[in-house]
């Protein structure tokens, strides 16, 4: 914590001193169309530099860090003619201009290409991908997981409120088969304290969600999909900060800032966040009961009492951008820590008290990238990271508690001991240290405008040590270690043909994994027993490949097809077992393989020039073989009940999803998506050659049908001129599903329909935005997981502050 | 007095159901025909992820005794049955007359929840008296059986994971590994917990220094006098030099825990010199009071094959009683999955031998110390009794469900007097599933 503050202080002093020497010139302005309406999404670029900006939803832009003198800026945007504007700025000047753009007649050409947002470019690349822009959402009191959960085909299943454990389901695939990245680096480099639970949307540029088929630059053994979080990448000087407070004593604050010295390219980026919540929301219903001394139930409505969550973190990067020798060269430090109380296990029927985890991570990183490196068309990227992660699981309280947070008293009048010795099993104060080193390097070569070759390599190594302070020293000295190293190389060839109507991306990935395990053993030496080490290595190589392609069948209708033979390497516990979790080793375990296919259409049309529709429909198939599952031995004859993992299961998932966007003028935005899938048991015959009853049946505990809807209405010049009011309405629907093969009502979740509303007010100076949000407005019981209730009605107020000129 | 009253009630219930159902019994009358008009409930375990694991839940279905005895009648519990609320295999027990089922849900959101069901035939099982949850005392996956005391009491037991005495924060030198044991009594009539005790149960200091400890308690039985409970144990040994679980070790003599009843106090340990296995059974009874007043107990994981041990009326092992099932059956490595006493010192044993999972049935004579494999039952290679729970004893007869995993089978009715083997109703199976009891 103190280290983090020092860094902050250093950053502030440093940027202040640099600032004093620079020549603070800037140009800002507003873009209008010929009717006098402001134009969002217009690119504003400096002719002979890479400086630039994009107008915000009020048509406002600003470019900072200019040197004094004459500049030529030009503005262009989809549907408008390019406009060049010469400007002359004096030292220390802050120039403001107004630019009116003429509507363009031509449909094609340079302007259109430039007008394409990054989001569109990714979405049209042929992959089954959703790009979540966080810009608007970051004004509201929303978490990153909320944004993901509102996206088609993604189900975020959280075990409670802010900070609680999360599982992501992408098109029916979940758990280990979904990998999460931050700027292309596996999130396990950072640990729990810097995760989608703690990173606020305001620090995120966008989130890319790849389903089933993953591009070569995200190298990992992601069998079912990848979520790639791109942190903010502003190139103009700015400072944004926000603070939100609301129900359950929830406080969320963050800031991010960027400074670049125009003269020498020196760049500082810094950001920080702090989240806190008591998560003491009310719970009720059939899972919330106190057990009386005689065993009878007393149903109660009460607040959660052991669920507080706090996370704090920050990142600073120093270096140079857009200089001769690098487009970006940054050295950075990322520090974070969290504290997380755990209210219950898989079900909320048994409340815990005193179980919590803490985690910290310190990450050093280096980023380098350069276009036209040595040769024109060659782009080089490199990211190197080293992290030190520390995690503690603490559970030492011996008593049973009821939902009022009181010790349960037994028939004898004395407190009742937990049957495992602590809240969730045996008492533990387990310290887990991990050192993670990750290198990612990429080479892209544009042979010409239509052909590109991509090479990417990732090296990842993790070294894990464990110390449970509730175990005797002897026991601790007999805990084994596991070191894992992964090398994943990917090669891709991208091609555009027929005037970019056809885009194809062919790729192959080569996975290598090496795990070293050391189990301490007893050796007999000269009649005495001494501790020895038994080490073993496991190496695995596998190859996967795939393609993604998009074809404009009509000017506004695109066919998108992608397929991959995806791979998940077995984890260290799956191969080498874990005596503590009753798993024994199975050296011969093979990787899980899944054949994934997505076929979809993307398109849009304009009706009466005021009604704009965009849609996306996609069907998918995931055919997983050699699924790694733990064998369950019905006999349990061994006094040590241990079972290995095996390549047993076959699972198939098929379904479809659709998204519809509708815009009316510049005021109304409606966004609707739904997703429906079947994840089925795909083993057809039992050992006797008879067809399983479950064959082709939906697996239990899968939320298979979800609908999300968002309506946004923007009102300009409300109360004050130049001000903006944005109204939001959102609903999420999850259909009921069984949680067990036995389809009885007790094992079925309720149908859910959760509604949120919000309002944001942007002051005329564009610096302040104030937002109020009401979540789950009808206070419905919400469940992501069976027998775990999520927060009911909640209110939040948020203040955002942005300065673009300094 | 109370018992007499209860029996009266039971007879009344029997007469009542006879009047209601009006069943007729055309079978030849055995010596002790049992209760002619009772329900016979069969239970089946659904597979979770692998065939035979039983982790998909448990379903039950009740038929008349006539139907249960008729091979022309087909019962498909998985298609037509009632799902008992339990995430994994339910731990079922039944009243002696078959009119009530008792269940304790195993793991999951309702793990440890005790439910009584009135058996009304077919898939009509009605939960009565709401739920009682014992998980605070005995955990969400407790082991329990009912006592043979006229359907009045169930006993659940649990031991927490053994920890060394010198584990932090205590420290010091090592002396023992112990868990905390819970013994809990459940009143079936009032549907509530009537008492519980929690304690550490020490072995001898020497045994404990070697790392031996009680890993589980299971299968309690009430002695003939009704003043002691004898509780089976599952032993574990830790390698003291490394504090890890020992895989292979020289086993101690079979041990049982004796506690006072009904106070559940004063736990003591008795040790056999005949058997060296555990006596915990698995998901069902493992000890019975026979007509001679002694308790007979089967062993599992016994290095020389399962034995039947005798505990005399002084609540001590009778080491002069030696009954090796290996010797009696003439095979090696007998392992008793489950067994059931019928009457007159005759019992039936479900067992495997030679290290395979294939199940067999044998009749044992506890006085003569003989065992005979029951012929007339098809012994399929996939017949696995490891999760078997329910034997219906009715007069001289015992009903068992015989279904190989994923294959159809039948109820078999074994007569302890005539040695007759009757093939009863056909049990329709589903791939990966198996039937685990008749109640």
From TrEMBL, chain B:
Keywords attached to this entry: Signal
Signal peptide bounds: 1-18
Superkingdom: Bacteria
Record keyword Signal present: yes
Protein name per its UniProtKB record: DUF4374 domain-containing protein
Species assigned in the record: Anditalea andensis
